[in-house]
Design goal:
Elements: E1 6-10, H1 17-21, E2 34-38, E3 48-49, E4 65-68, E5 75-80, H2 88-91, E6 97-102, H3 108-114, E7 118-121, H4 125-128
Parallel strand pairs: 5-6, 5-7
Antiparallel strand pairs: 1-2, 3-4, 4-6
Amino acid sequence: MSLDAFEIKVVPEPGQDMAKLLGQEESMIETANVVLTPLPPLKAMSFAIDDRYWIKKNKRQYQPEFTENPERKLKVVFFHDSYGQKWMPFLGYNFNRVYFIWQYNWDMDFVEQQKPDVVIDEMLERFVVSKDPTNLTENNE
């Protein structure tokens, strides 16, 4: 699916990640926050949480969200950090089912349960130097 199927807007928002670490989220405004809004005939993708999958206990924001699109065929498990949230409104249109999991290491039990066609691992480059890629399958508690 092309980005032409979406209205693309830049909408300022409070600072994220580094600004929060510095306690400056209100003064360090993100000015390049891109919002994708589907154009007709597309409808907004809806996200659900499947309560059968509690990967990180007591941390609801990190639970796997998923989208379903019966017009597509492939299943994806998408591990991501905070930047992965920006992909969520777009990826759901391209696959039958996408599980979005906010964590740095792969949960291999979850991957084996879901039997995805594709596993995507999105990671901010500052984590590439602090995370050994060969350890991505280790538990992420």
